[in-house]
Amino acid sequence: MKKPVLVIMAAGMGSRYGGLKQIDPIDEEGQIIMDFSLFDAKRAGFEKVAFIIKRENEEDFRQVIGKRMADHMEVAYVFQDIANLPEGYQVPEGRVKPWGTGHAVLSCLEEIDGPFAVINADDYYGEEAFRLIYHYLESHEDDEKYRYTMVGYQLGNTVTDNGHVARGICEMDEAGRLVGICERTRVEKETEGSPSRKTRERPGISCQRKPRCL
Questions:
Q1: Domains in the chain with CATH codes
Q2: Which helix (H) or strand (E) holds 75?
Q3: Does residue 201 surpass a pLDDT of 60?
């Protein structure tokens, strides 16, 4: 079985942030969020990383993180191009932006031919997340079915004191298998004047009730 590959989605610009937050330093040592993810991924067993980026950002990524990581892991660059579509599909008239996560992962087709894990460039996941997903990918080979997995977090540990966030709320069956995900676009800690208890997903946390569910 081939070794799992880490895929990092870094093609998006931070519109609210105002720039490429994926490569902005977050501490006095000049480290970026991806440094922490790659350090934890390497310790978990990942030996190759594929960055999904825009062509115009390639040199910045090579200078800020790619060249450093090439001493520790195999590094590949993948470009999310709007014209990169499956056979039989074409770009709709007037469309100028690439699609979302599925389209980004499709862009890796030439670089990945085995198990892989996908993360965002600007999120912090923690050492255990990489250890758990690497172990699953290494020990669950596809058979008559594709073997998927996902690392989940307790909702209360993912909210902030500084406003609201969007989160995918997972539904599990009695065997611990994922059976559904509902996206809540406004999850926040409760304060005075928060929505009624009917909208709560967890005590002390309120969620907007306009989900998109899988």
A1: 5-139 (3.90.550.10), 155-213 (no CATH)
A2: strand 74-79
A3: no
The pLDDT score that the predictor gives to residue 199 is 45
CB 37 within 8 A of CB 8: yes
Token pair, residue 15, equals 């519109």
- Nearest C-alpha neighbor of 3 from the set 113, 107, 109: 113
Q: What is the DSSP string of 9-65?
A: E----BTTTTB-GGGS--STT---HHHHHHHHHHHHT--EEEEEE-GGGHHHHIIII
- Alpha helix stretches (DSSP H) within the chain: 33-44, 58-61, 67-69, 101-106, 127-139
pLDDT tens-digit series, residues 118-171: 999 988 999 999 999 999 999 998 889 888 899 999 998 898 888 888 999 999
Q: What's this model's pTM, rounded to 2 decimal places?
A: 0.81
CA–CA distances in Å: residue 164 to residues 27, 97, 208? 24, 26, 10
> Cβ(61)–Cβ(53) under 8 Å?
yes
Two tokens at 122? Answer: 């600007």
